[in-house]
Design brief:
Largest sheet: 8 strands, parallel, barrel
Order of helices and strands: HEHEHHHEHEHEHEHHEHEHHH
CATH architecture: Alpha-Beta Barrel
Helix content: 55-70%
CATH topology: TIM Barrel
CATH class: Alpha Beta
Number of domains: 1
Number of strands: 8
């Protein structure tokens, strides 16, 4: 019998949820996703220091010697995400997801400008738009930005998605892919109810993604569903057949070492019919979000968490650029 990972890979596109290049090489996924927290974690790995330094030096050269270190670091943040993305694309055959600065999540125009800048950096490196997904938080402002970007052939992955209404708004906007956060939904329900265990089929995150998947497929939406943020392999196996699942190296390893029969749970060709017809404007979207305490709290927590990761990475880059320029000055 094949491992759960091999069986899953035959019915779902398995995506690596990491910025660790060695983990990606090991598991050979089709696609890979990154976010500020993952890039921050990868930046702590000594083997990747040269990538960080390369981004800082490139940014300094672009802005010139008179520009402040603060501006160099701001430029380097985008450069680092793209540098890691380019390295990942050397390993995988598919797409990499690169995230727009989470601090722009409620600013449509700034999100659009940042996305264009990121895709431009990939294009300058000879990487075509079909190999990149721009990750944007699933706020109303983010969804509207993605709608415009998709019309420019810039493909988007709407992340930090916690409820059905965010998903419907994304599908109506014609986004390429959504990333509902299974494990973070579970976290909220555990904290809210005091219940410390859910069977896979009862998992609130699993139930949410299952409904979204079936709604999209039974209503002819082209938007792909990629379950994300898993806490255990039971959540993953309950979503077998989902378009894509992005999985951490730790859980990929567990799936690879587990041998049992994996049935198909979600079938795009025979979806369960979700008999709802919903179209949202900003007012109704915000009303639905206000009525969903879990989704509102987790969306804000996610944006805050990613923003703090960017702040921390900026601090580290400020220290690093100072050290690099000091070494250059001493060498002259």
């Amino acid at each position: 019998m094949d491992s759960l990972l091999k069986q899953l890979s035959s019915m779902t596109v398995v995506v690596a949820d990491t910025g660790d290049l060695e983990a990606i090489k090991k598991f050979k996924p089709r696609d890979a996703t990154t976010n500020p927290s993952l890039i921050l974690a990868a930046a702590q790995i000594p083997a990747y220091q040269n990538l960080i330094d390369k981004a800082l030096i490139t940014s300094r050269q672009k802005l010139g010697p008179k520009e402040s270190k603060r501006e160099v670091v701001k430029e380097a943040l985008d450069e680092i995400c793209v540098v890691f993305g380019k390295e990942i694309l050397k390993i995988i055959p598919g797409r990499v997801s690169t995230e727009v600065d989470a601090r722009l999540s409620f600013d449509t125009e700034a999100t659009i400008l940042k996305a264009r800048k990121i895709i431009g950096k990939y294009n300058q490196a000879g990487i075509t738009n079909d190999r990149v997904l721009i990750k944007i938080a699933s706020t109303w402002e983010g969804i509207k930005a993605a709608e415009i970007l998709e019309k420019e052939n810039i493909h988007c992955n709407l992340t930090l998605l916690f409820n059905f209404y965010q998903a419907v708004a994304c599908a109506d906007a014609g986004v390429t892919l959504i990333s509902p956060f299974v494990g973070r939904i579970l976290d909220w329900y555990k904290a809210a109810t005091g219940r410390d265990f859910y069977l896979g089929a009862e998992d609130p995150g699993v139930i949410s993604v299952t409904k979204i998947f079936n709604y999209f497929k039974s209503n002819g939406y082209k938007t792909e569903v990629m379950g994300a943020s898993f806490r255990n392999i039971e959540e993953i196996t309950e979503l077998s057949g989902c378009d894509l699942l992005t999985i951490s190296p730790k859980l990929l390893q567990e799936l690879d070492e587990t041998f049992s029969l994996l049935p198909l749970k979600l079938d795009a060709h025979k979806p369960a019919v979700v008999d709802e017809s919903i179209h949202l404007d900003q007012s109704s979207f915000e009303l639905m979000m206000a009525g969903d305490k879990m989704a509102t709290e987790k969306l804000n927590d996610g944006i805050n968490g990613f923003s703090k990761a960017i702040d921390k990475l900026e601090d580290q880059l400020n220290e690093r650029i100072a050290l690099i320029e000091e070494e250059i000055a001493l060498a002259l």
